[in-house]
Amino acid sequence: MKNEALFHELIRKKPVILAPLEDVSDAVFRRLCRKYGATITVTEFVNVEGLLRGCRNAKRKIALAPDDALTAIQIYGSDPTRLAEAARFAESAEPFYLDINCGCWVPKIAGRGAGAGWLRDPLAMVAMAKMVVQNVSVPVTVKTRIGYGPESDMPIVDLARRLEDAGIQALTIHCRTAQMGHSGMADWTWAQRAKEVVKIPVIVNGDVKTADDAKRAMDLTGCEGVMVGRRAIEHPWIFREARALLDHGEARPLPTHFERIDLCREHLIANVEARGEPYGVRVTRRHLAGYLRGLPGAAILRQRLLVEDGLSTCLTILAEADARLRPSLHPCS
User: Fold this and answer.
1) What's the first-to-final CA gap in the chain, in angstroms?
2) Which CATH number among 2.60.300.12, 1.20.85.10, 1.20.272.10, 1.10.1200.80 corresponds to the domain 257-324?
């Protein structure tokens, strides 16, 4: 199987993985997260119907740059035959592996039987995964939740066994039910229970917000790696912080004020190069509050940036902020 040896080699290195994030984990953001230490990255959600119809947005999502060698493509849909067909199509983009989205709780996706909707019928989910595995030659993984809900019904342990038998190479578990969405606390012990009954790697996901969280989650569950989602949007430095702690037992300092400004600048420029103005500027805005957190005058700076559509104006605002923070180059009189 293509990429299988490298896949398992990286899994042994305690990967810290960038989660699939709709409208976020595009090529530009994946590159930034790899720069800061993400071991593996995953694309945005790719709708199988859009992909098979030749939808421009779906095709954009699976287009992998040369530095995307360790990027997985995540697909979602409600029809197993179409998922298998789309998996074959996505394989032509040469992803590191393919991931099946069985965890998205958003009603417009789960309500139609895709994403976490598969958890309503675990046997059908397993049959679907087996069909996808049999139709491609790269590793296939599944990202799911511990159950659809209510909390009294948690199929994840038995489901993990069945998915392993279906041939998936790894399982990522977001440790909430679909009905919880992002509310409440993720219960990592469910990943631990699933890990105890399978031989395939298990990746723990949910509420991994700091390097300490990453280490505690792995220590508690025995899982091979962690996946970081929402925290990366505002703080991609979490990858280097987690790597330092996992690899060397070292606590990395938080990014400096100047690193924060530099990342705003870098992300804005890269997004404009990829998408043009004004869209490239606008899609960067969701990150700026987190990037600028802790800077003196951050609230005013953020307000100024959020109303500007031009790259040059944004860069000027950032340069002014940088200059204000620099110590005077003139000796005291």
Assistant:
1) 71
2) 1.10.1200.80
**Pair 141, 171: CB distance under 8 Å:** yes
Q: What is the pLDDT of residues 25-60, one digit of tens each?
A: 999 999 999 999 999 999 999 999 999 999 999 999
Q: Find, among 258, 260, 272, the residue nearest to 312 by Cα.
A: 272
Confidence of residue 329 (pLDDT cuts 50, 70, 90): very low
Structure tokens at 330: 């003139």
In the set 33, 102, 104, 175, the catalytic residue is 104
Q: How far apart are CA 208 and CA 193, in angstroms?
A: 18
* Alpha-carbon distances of 316 from 39, 146, 261, 264, rounded to whole Å: 34, 47, 12, 12
Q: What is the Cα–Cα distance from 197 to 194, expressed in whole angstroms?
A: 6
What pTM, to 2 d.p., does this model score?
0.94
pLDDT at position 332 over 90 = no
Respond yes or no: is residue 332 known to be catalytic.
no
Residue with tokens 């959600």: 45
